[in-house]
Amino acid sequence: MNDTPTPPDAVRPEIRVEGIGVAPGVAVGPAYLFAAGAYQARPEDMSADDVEAELERFERAVARSERELKKIAVVAHQKLGDNSAGIFDAQKLVLRDSQFYDAVVERVREHGSGAGWAVQTVLAEHRRRLEASPNAALRERAADFLDVQNRVLRNLQQGRAVSRIDPNRVVVAENLTAADILLFSRRGVLGVVLDFGGPTSHVSIMARALGVPAVVSLHGLAEHVQPDDVLVVDGFSGTVIVNPDAETLERAERKAARFDAIAADRDSLRDSPSETGDGHRVGLQANVEFREEFPLLHEYGAEGVGLFRTEMLFLTQGRALDEDQQYEVYRDAVVAAAPHAVTFRLLDLGGDKVLPMSRRESNPFLGWRGLRILLDKPDLLRPQLRAVLRAAAAAPHDAPPKVLLPMVSGIEQVRAFRRTFQAVCADLEAEGLPHRAEVPLGIMVEVPSVALQADLFARNVDFFSIGTNDLTQFTLAVDRGNDLVAGLYRELHPAVLGLVAETVRAAKAVGVPVSVCGEVAADPRVTPLLVGLGVDTLSASPAYLTLVKRVVRAFTMDEAEDLARRALRQPDADAVRRLLEYFLACHNRDLAELLGLDEPDGGLARRIADRMADEPVD
Amino acid sequence: MITRQVTVRNKAGVHTRPASMIVREAARFDAEFFIRKDGYEINGKSIIGVMTLAAEQGATLDLLFEGEDEEAAADALEALFERGFGEPI
Questions:
Q1: Full-model pTM
Q2: Which residues form the domain of B71?
Q3: What is the CATH code for A48-157?
Q4: Neighbour order of strands in the sheet with B40-43
Q5: Which of A6-15, A189-198, A258-267, A330-339 shows the highest mean pLDDT?
Q6: Residue ranges per domain, chain A?
Q7: Can you tell me whether residue A230 is helix, strand or coil?
Q8: Across the interface, do B49 and A100 touch by the CB < 8 Å criterion?
Q9: Fold of A304-439
Q10: Interface membership of A97 toward B (CB under 8 Å)
Q11: B61: distance to nearest CA of chain A, Å?
């Protein structure tokens, strides 16, 4: 028998995984495996004492779930009618049904299983039975059990020992809630790496707002990481490296240091004017969803809020807020942003958030969304409008809040909205409530029809806000959430840029300001292009504003306009991207390196400069 | 133990809203309550049980009651079905 000695402590190989970078920054540190995950449950071994404690935890989670469902049912009754409300009633009844409750208790007692695991197992059985039915209506009910499961598991998770985490680590998890990441951020976590999620999920938005580098959508990375493995998290490129070798580690640490330096620059940069090298002003505002982000406005030097996504308030509470509750938040926002203004985008909800499951749309993306829902449901629109106009009374006189309409596709919608607006103003006047009626009214430019009719709309509204995310999806007919075609989603596609240019042209002709609030506004590579196209203001998550301002100050308007003209002439998105990267490498070496356009010797920059000199411009 | 036979009268059948109405109505009484359809029997006081029942308009169901107040329970549930759960018939 051959006794081959095993090499001592075999070095674990470097693994590189690509995900989606959702919050900027580079972090290097040991992993912390957050095994609990928001909605996962694993069986646990417990002592008898633990059993009783576990049953108590279960009862508390059920009671909390009951209260939540009761509240939701009330709102559903009012807003959506009895059928939808019936679903929440039924879910509430499930919680106390002996086939659920007693079954879970039995599992915890007899099998020593954790409450979460027991809940999952019991409901999975019921779900399986329904899913196997030939009857479509019954199959749909399986979703109700899943909802109950998620709710109870979520309530079980509260109070979990998240506080156990050590600072200066990179958290690795399947998924996290926004509350988790808030806690982690306070505990000094370096970065976050998740299997699930996308750029617009709640946790990504929070990570961005809090300045915690994050990469999501890694699909199973968590399994390959062991506690204390070293991780490099690149929130720009979306790359995660496990156990970097010496060279990789050195590069990563340099990048992290550079990012820290730029972030530290933040304070001095905050007070510098946001203007190009030749003094052309570029507005920089913040995209905001939550109260927690209000202090970031001043911290990052945002000139007000370019996009307040009001629907997030509803979505995180899991219910509609009434007028007074909304008024409180909007008033706080207006005060926090002073002396600048807040742009309130009215509820941009999809039908899936408002309709009961039995009425799911087959194509929600092209369906009942945004302004369409608001115009059909005055009981959603009016309270919000009233809340905004009342909050306007607290705004600085020369910076009234702005009202932004989501998902506009035709001029008749703007007209219908104005009628409601006038009626609401008349009501507030008659009731003698302090408010302000003269507020600018603008529209999201995200549906191509609006961009193509930009002249008409420019004459009928006070400002435009270009939603490049949806504009790209609609123009290229691509669902960015669809794995099969997500690669076709390119905001730099010349056709999309052309619509942006057209929108700006029409707006400038009548002096209507244009802002861009989609993700490209936060991408320092695209900044010169947007400025060159004539966009007046960029609105992005606060954490990105420092970088964007740095880029703005690094070029002149002439150069930007030249870049824009070239970009519009390119045949495809890749050509545009190369152009932008070259431009950035010329003008801001630090950032170029940070963004992965590594050319420490400046060779790339020189090649670019040469190339741009050669290209003719018509 | 008494049995009543009922027909599902409303258009949408026993979907989630009627299901919760049935369970809530049955909870008002002490009597045990079972629903039988096509030889398949479920506990009518359990929402999970009723949710596994596929009863479309026109379906015939046997309602079984056992207990002190079985008569009152039977009357109440029968009336509920008779009304079509307050939905379009």
A1: 0.62
A2: 2-86
A3: 1.10.274.10
A4: B2-7, B60-66, B32-37, B40-43
A5: A330-339
A6: 15-35+162-260, 48-157, 304-439
A7: strand
A8: no
A9: TIM Barrel (3.20.20)
A10: yes
A11: 17
